[in-house]
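Ex. 9. Protein: MFS transporter.
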Amino acid sequence: MSDTATKAPGIRQSDPARWKALVFIALAQLMVVLDATIVNIALPSAQQDLGISDGNRQWVVTAYALAFGGLLLFGGRIADLWGRKRTFVLGLVGFAAASALGGAATNEAMMFGSRALQGVFGALLAPAALSLLAVMFTDAKERAKAFGIYGAIAGGGGAVGLILGGFLTEYLNWRWTFFVNIPFAIVAAAGAYFVIREPAGGRNRSPLDIPGVILSTLGLVSLVYGFTRAESEGWSDAVTIGMFVASVGLLAAFVVVEAKVKSPLLPLRVITDRNRGGIYLSLGLAIISMFGLFLFLTYYLQIVKGYTPVKTGFAFLPMIVGMITGSTQIGTRLMTRVAPRLLMGPGFLVAALGMLLLTQMEIGSSYTALLLPAMLLLGLGMGTAFMPAMSLATQGVEPRDSGVASAMVNTSQQVGGAIGTALLNTIAASATTSYIADHMGDAGTRSQQQLVQLEAMVKGYTSAIWFAVGILVVAAAIALTFVNAGKPDMSAVADAGEDAEDSLRVPVVAH
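Predicted structure tokens for MFS transporter:
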């Protein structure tokens, strides 16, 4: 692979090991994204083995989500303070240990504790991985390739988790959905330790903003838990409402504190930038629609169509192929030629078109005629949009802020996932209940009643998917109006030679 950085005079030769480093960063990211879905498939088996009650089983997912979502900003700041490579390796080792604990769990407390620990170390790992890419790949064309690979993994890894989770659960047992993380983590940590060379001079050694850490963590935990609880207990539940009120108050106090303290956890310059703000918002909205869809399609394929876990996982392959194609082919090839919004906006609209096809789902819908083209469009659109979003979210940011800027990308995804699961599930459940109330009276036999229940389930899914279509259209509108960065200015990058060496060679973007 040619080193484009060496062709331009005045630019320091790039680290020759950066492409090897990308392999280990991508492997770690894949592990974290896999974990978000792989455990869902194994949950029924684990629940039965460990004697977890129906009321408590949600904590297998919630414990991870709360720790991961609540600590992401803190994890990003730790990466800036300790060094990205050190934080990355520590996150990997801790994640492996927590996964081993989960696989060896003998009761529900051990399982919940291991999932919370996975979330803690994931919150260190994810921002460090993205910020390493941001500071190691600064040439515009190379950055496009690197973030194309990263974007494909970030978008398609969840679907890969469904396939892997199905295989492990069906042919081994649920414990392997935890143990499989260990070789991933060991290889990625060893590779990172020996290969990654973090550029010098990018640390943020300012004192840690303790009030900011406390307020942001409590605020994000309250927000994520509020949406998680709304899914199971309803939106009018007193604790649900209390969580939302608390999160608004805590996050408002966090913003006030960050505007006043000398060394803020999240410098407001990171989120008040028009481009980054637009990306965080549009990315979060897109994830809302994607997370709900994964859940609905999994249930539709297994319960309505009668697919096995393995067959369900393979049914998601077109989406993975679309993600990889959109990210590494369309996005990577066009990112240095057109403005990011011209990839993000149309990308979200193509995904919305795929989602629109899924509103036509019925009990007897053909996989080949309906689900296959819909998932291909979804993958292509999301892959095309995710790649420039991931890159621009950390581009042009000060090196000392790259960790926390990366954490904001993960935070928007995590909060979006929590909102999507709760909001779209609630809409689906309401539509299902309404359909059953209207049609069950006409079902005289048991088989007719079962048919009504399946029809009601599909009606619920399609009702929620209509909302997901609208959310994606709003995400596209935000990307097209807020994100106003131009295409990367190649000559500006070349002319920046000497100054860039002192600032981790952050690329100049034309506005």
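Check your answer against this statement. The chain has 19 helices and no strands.
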